[in-house]
Write a sequence for this structure.
């Protein structure tokens, strides 16, 4: 299985959401990491044939996915960011309906739906209406529908957004279980999601892939170090304006800062190993002093 | 495909608002049937007014005394009988009771002899038997006289005038007569067109969300990324709209028909519609049974077109609210716009006309295609069948090519 994106561009008027993007993916879990508005959802929608590219193309094993039409979608599973459903259908009916539009025969669909309901732990909620489910249950129903056709390509757009920590961990584990022998592309802006389950990480910014590789490879691209230091509370603002701060922890008298900087920010700063959150901030973060900073 | 279709129909029927809409339809159907039956009355010699089934039983008995062709001899006898009643019963209310058996023929004579566009309730009472015998020729002559009037000179072209006269001349005479209260209640009252208008609005509300709900529920991404989401699943949506329209339309119309004809009787199916009080001027030479087929099939074609249009609007605008407005606007607005003289001609080609064949078949609404003049309904039914056939592939392509932005 090879999914190849070649010179892919998507423009909405004058705004370029995906900009001449090139990447090739085979089996494994790919984590698409980027801030909101980086173009992740647009890219995923093009991968799911929901949007037509302005230019460039996506091929699956050498064939244009738009020309493959139903043949491509037959091997595709998709969980969108805004997972929509039919509020008055029960979970079981909802899954049976999705099975029908995925071309699964009714008898096989019943069996598959039973298996997946058990697999995602929704047995007790199977007869509940979709509108009565909690956020976590809805996400599980969402992953179940994506898995109905046992897809070779599984695309998950922000699958853990809005879940509480327990649900997020359970959901991550579920995705890991399902990832075997298929290509999973997982988009998120939650670093720990990809840290735990992605084999390869794609860093996306302003419609382009900045870097891709394993976590270690990406950490190796950082040209600045990560420094741990303690500063007086009154000095925090000064450091925030001057440096990218990946973490800040208040102690009794001081504040522990995790600073990303090429130079040692202060005499008693200690160089520590970088993690993915540092990497995220390194590529996507701003200093509090930057004009466009989100602080 | 069948499984998808069943789910599409379930999607429509499980919506709470649609359940309410279906209850409204059932209630309207039952109330409409009750009121239609209640309008059929018979007054006994004791002055008691019977309604519905019991009235129908009495009317059938007295009206069928005149069953058969309304030849000169029969009309002669009717006039004589009427004059006898009036002579013996000076009180008009009491006379009315005795006239109930010949009331239909009495009204036909009133229509025929009052003048082309006039009405005289007592005209038949002053007719001699000799005069009454010429009613069929007088009907045609009165039309010719009307068409030669100065004020209508430019209303119709020569071809249209010829068509109108030939239609009136071609009407089979003498009229066949028998008790036909069931058909008259069904087809000559306002209840059937009202039911059809209500049906279209309700059908519109039901089908309006078939396409747009995928967007409003944000279920579009999964729908379109599924294997059949851009082909068979779209067809199943169109089929669901078609089935809902077909089943609900025919179930409602047939239920209404069964209730009315079941209660009032099916007799009179072969009577010409011109025997009905308000149909004297009809340019369509139908029997009541033929009128029933025209009215119901025309209504079905009109309803189907309007619901298909609502579905198309739903697919294009992605808004259920806008789609719901379409059937309402198309079935109600032309009634008011038609009163504006400039728009009358255009409005007569609107699909809502097919819901009101009952009401408008006695008006001189004509159209000419390739030099051939015909009644507007003869043209509208095939026209809207063709438009329905055109709209289906357009709707399919619109939804098939939709993008999720």
């Amino acid at each position: 299985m090879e999914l190849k994106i070649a010179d892919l561009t998507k423009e909405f008027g004058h705004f370029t959401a995906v900009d001449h993007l090139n990447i090739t993916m085979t089996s494994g879990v790919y984590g698409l990491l980027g801030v909101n508005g980086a173009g992740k959802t647009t890219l995923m929608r093009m991968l799911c044939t929901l949007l037509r590219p302005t230019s460039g193309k996506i091929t699956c094993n050498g064939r244009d996915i738009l020309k493959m039409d139903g043949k491509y979608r037959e091997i595709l599973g998709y969980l969108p960011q805004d997972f929509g459903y039919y509020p008055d259908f029960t979970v079981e009916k909802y899954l049976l309906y999705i099975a029908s539009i995925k071309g699964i025969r009714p008898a096989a669909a019943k069996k598959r739906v039973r298996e997946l309901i058990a697999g995602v732990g929704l047995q007790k909620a199977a007869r509940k209406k979709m509108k009565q489910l909690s956020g976590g249950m809805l996400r599980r129903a969402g992953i179940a529908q994506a898995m109905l056709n046992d897809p070779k390509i599984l695309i998950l757009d922000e699958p853990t957004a809005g879940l509480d920590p327990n649900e997020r961990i359970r959901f991550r584990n579920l995705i890991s279980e399902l990832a075997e022998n298929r290509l999973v592309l997982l988009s998120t802006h939650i670093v720990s999601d990809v840290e735990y389950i992605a084999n390869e990480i794609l860093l996306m910014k302003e419609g382009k892939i900045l870097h891709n590789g394993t976590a270690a490879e990406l950490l190796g691209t950082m040209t600045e170090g990560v420094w741990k230091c303690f500063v007086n509370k009154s000095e925090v603002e000064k450091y925030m304006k001057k440096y990218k701060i990946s973490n800040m922890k208040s102690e009794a008298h001081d504040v522990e800062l995790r600073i990303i900087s090429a130079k040692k920010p202060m005499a008693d700063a200690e160089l520590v190993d970088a993690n993915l959150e540092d990497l995220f901030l390194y590529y996507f973060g701003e200093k509090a002093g930057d004009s466009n900073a989100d602080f | 495909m069948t499984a998808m279709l069943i789910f599409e129909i379930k999607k429509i029927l499980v919506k709470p608002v649609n359940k309410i809409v279906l209850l409204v339809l059932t209630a309207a159907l039952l109330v409409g049937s009750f009121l239609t039956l209640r309008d059929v009355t018979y007054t006994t010699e004791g002055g008691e007014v019977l309604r519905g089934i019991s009235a129908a039983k009495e009317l059938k008995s007295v009206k069928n005394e005149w069953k058969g062709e309304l030849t000169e001899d029969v009309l002669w006898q009717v006039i004589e009988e009427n004059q006898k009643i009036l002579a013996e019963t000076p009180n008009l209310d009491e006379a009315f009771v005795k006239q109930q058996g010949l009331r239909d023929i009495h009204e036909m004579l009133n229509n025929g002899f009052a003048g082309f566009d006039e009405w005289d309730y007592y005209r038949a009472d002053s007719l001699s038997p000799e005069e009454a015998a010429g009613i069929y020729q007088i009907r045609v002559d009165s039309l010719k006289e009307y068409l030669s009037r100065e004020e209508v000179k430019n209303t119709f072209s020569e071809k249209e005038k010829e068509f109108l006269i030939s239609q009136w001349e071609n009407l089979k005479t003498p009229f066949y007569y028998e008790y036909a209260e069931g058909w008259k209640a069904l087809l000559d009252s306002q209840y059937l067109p009202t039911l059809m208008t209500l049906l279209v609005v309700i059908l519109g509300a039901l089908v309006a969300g078939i396409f747009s709900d995928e967007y409003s529920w944000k279920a579009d991404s999964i729908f379109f990324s599924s294997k059949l989401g851009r082909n068979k699943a779209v067809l199943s949506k169109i089929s669901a709209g078609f089935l809902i329209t077909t089943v609900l339309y025919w179930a409602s119309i047939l239920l209404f028909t069964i209730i009315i004809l079941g209660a009032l009787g099916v007799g009179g199916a072969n009577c010409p519609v011109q025997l009905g009080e308000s149909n004297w001027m009809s340019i369509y030479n139908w029997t009541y049974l033929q009128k029933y087929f025209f009215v119901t099939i025309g209504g079905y074609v009109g309803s189907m077109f309007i619901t298909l249009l609502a579905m198309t609007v739903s697919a294009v605008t992605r808004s259920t609210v806008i789609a719901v407005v379409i059937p309402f606007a198309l079935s109600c607005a032309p009634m008011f716009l038609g009163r504006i003289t400039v728009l009358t001609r255009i409005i007569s080609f609107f699909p809502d006309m097919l819901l009101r064949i009952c009401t408008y078949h006695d008006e001189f609404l004509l159209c000419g295609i390739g030099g051939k003049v015909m009644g507007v309904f003869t043209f509208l039914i095939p026209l809207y069948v063709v438009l329905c056939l055109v709209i289906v592939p357009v709707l399919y392509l619109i939804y098939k090519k939709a993008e999720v932005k």
About this structure: The mean pLDDT of chain B is 89. The two ends of chain B are 27 Å apart (CA to CA). Chain B is about 65% helix and 5% strand. Strands of chain B lie at 41-43, 49-51, 68-69, 176-177, 366-369, 372-375.
